[in-house]
Amino acid sequence: MPSRNLDKNVSMPVEQNTKVAIVGMGSVGTAIAYACLIRGSAGALALYDVNSTKVRAEVLDLKHGSQFVPHCRISGSDDIAVTAGSAVVIVTAGAKQKPGQSRLELAAANVAMAQTLTPQLLAHSPEAVVIFVTNPVDVVTFAATRSVDAAPGHVFGSGTVLDSSRFRYLIAQQADLAVGNVHGLIVGEHGDSEISLWSSVSVGGVPATEFRRDGVLVFDEQNRRRISTDVVNAAYEIIAGKGATNLAIGLSSARIIEAVLGDQHRVLPVSTVQQGAHGISGVALSLPTVVSAHGAGQVLEVPLSESESQGLQASATTLRAAQESLGL
């Protein structure tokens, strides 16, 4: 009979914490929960909203589909304690953008919410990575980061991850290729001053500025300008048509969550308080950033053209002015 290892110093593997809390069960929070459920992003979902009837209904609706998705424990409450012990907390709570309203016009109410809520969330989940989706996400992220003494990178915003997805989709559509063949980034503000980094876009490994179909240059200056404008205006068009953007931000948020829970060291254009990249400091905006179990880490300084550099600086100036107008 084989001998048993009775060495009490042998440590047992610690089960990974895969609990994700979602704060705010409006259209965006619900879409994030649904995307996480069908993608198998999390082992447990905790839904928090001050509307107890709404959160109970969403929990039931999600649970009723349990047969068709990877196993996930789902709970919900109007008590913030339901978020306790989370590895990741996603915040979508706040006033939503109205038709014709810019993201920065939302700022005052949602900044105050973030300053109050962030310390409460970290009191219940001290080791959590807190990700803000609430708009205007850059200013809200700056306020949230400054409201707590969290570990570096543990509070950040969803930034331009969705904008970059829109960008890649439009490029792929123009090139008549699958979107997986396209690499490109939007940086700066998640909003009107964001910058399309055309100088580093590649389409099937070919620089966008050299990509041809039937011998014809596909991404000439006119097409580049049109696509960049369409990315900026995408949210306004969707809000005008159905009242809110929610499905794509649900999917992109689930992707960010997976990068954290999986310790993937994935480069994503999330929003962080910058510490000197491209000469920018003291303002939250999006640049390609390594996302891992420790949250938002190293910011990669992708080479910029002169016009892109000027645009990024202008975007930073716009956001800094918004922060200062709110006393941040």
Description:
- There is one protein chain.
- The mean pLDDT is 93.
- The protein starts with 18 loop residues before the first strand and ends with a helix.
- Helices cover 38% and strands 19% of the residues.
- Helix 1 (27-39) links the parallel strand 1 (19-23) and strand 2 (44-48).
- It has two domains: 19-157, NAD(P)-binding Rossmann-like Domain (Rossmann fold, 3-Layer(aba) Sandwich); 161-325, Lactate dehydrogenase/glycoside hydrolase, family 4, C-terminal (L-2-Hydroxyisocaproate Dehydrogenase, Chain A, domain 2).
- Helix 1 packs across helix 7 and helix 4 packs across helix 8 (306-325).
- The radius of gyration is 21 Å and the shape is globular.
- The chain has helices at residues 27-39, 52-63, 107-124, 137-146, 161-175, 221-242, 247-261, 306-325; strands at residues 19-23, 44-48, 73-77, 88-91, 129-132, 155-157, 182-183, 186-187, 195-196, 202-203, 206-207, 212-213, 216-217, 266-268, 271-275, 281-286, 289-292, 295-299.
- It is built from eight helices and 18 strands.
- Strands 3-2-1-4-5-6 form a six-stranded parallel beta sheet, with helices on both faces.
- By secondary structure, it is an alpha/beta fold.
- One of its GO terms (cellular component) is cytoplasm.
- It catalyses: (S)-lactate + NAD(+) = pyruvate + NADH + H(+).
- Keywords: Membrane, NAD, Oxidoreductase, Transmembrane, Transmembrane helix.
